[in-house]
Amino acid sequence: MSSTSTSPINFPLGPAVERTAVQSLRSLIAHLKTTSSNQTHEPIQLILNSQTSLISKKDYIPRIIPVPNRLGRVSETRILLITKDPAGVYKDSLTKAGSPTEDLIKEILPLKKLRKISQSKKSMIQLFQGYDLLLCDVRVQHLLPDILGEMFYAKNKKLPFAVEMFKRTEVEIKAKMKVKGMGKSMGVKKAPVEERCEAEYVLKQIKSIVKNTSYLPNTDSTISVKIGYSDMKTIELMANMAAVIDFLRNEKFQKSNGGVYNKKNQLVSVFVKSAESAALPVYKNPKFKESLE
What we know:
The protein is of the alpha/beta class. It is 34% helix and 18% strand. The longest helix has 21 residues, at 15-35. The relative contact order is 0.24. This is Ribosomal protein L1. Pfam families: Ribosomal_L1. InterPro entries: Ribosomal_uL1-like, Ribosomal_uL1/biogenesis.
């Protein structure tokens, strides 16, 4: 599954925390080997707690975190793509012979058809169980919570990842920013955008989503991030853990939805766990020792 990173790990929380993390990971994996029915490929979660919540209102938008050791492969992932209406231009580009995405997307559903499917609970269950990954055109993402409902969104079970169907030109980006900045009250109308689909650009985004991990900000102070699986090497899991922590703490990643832990909202504690295991310690911020005891 993974492509092993052999580079030395510069653990962002220091060598003492790194040793604790290694010990906890090894204990967790040993525990899973004796208790889990799916012991060969059990997801390993990193649990991070901060002083305050990251957002005031949940938006259900997963944020990608790059990791050195891949979590999945596109060729092994059953993918559903939800698009704007009509879907013809997207289907033509993504599924035609010779397209780089020709055999990668199992089904492309336009929004109108999805609305019809959502009226049948049986059909929605089939939709939920039939795919490993849901993708959606970024322009319809805000509509999906009401259509897909609790089956997909409750407890963040299977949230759609947004993709852009084409790479905007500089002119289009500036026009979009102008409308957003000045607003309708200034009489600025949204410029029409040519409907097009660039398969190479879509594929690049899909590969990033499947290979890497992600996090979803909560309205409480805790987030959970998958760093790998129990059949990965400890050094691979540690490299991914280091990448996740660095991404969330380093201000240089703020433009990519990282750098969320800072002086105003410090990281309080970190744990590792599986779906059914107890949380094992990785880090406890000494500044908050009393609140953790």
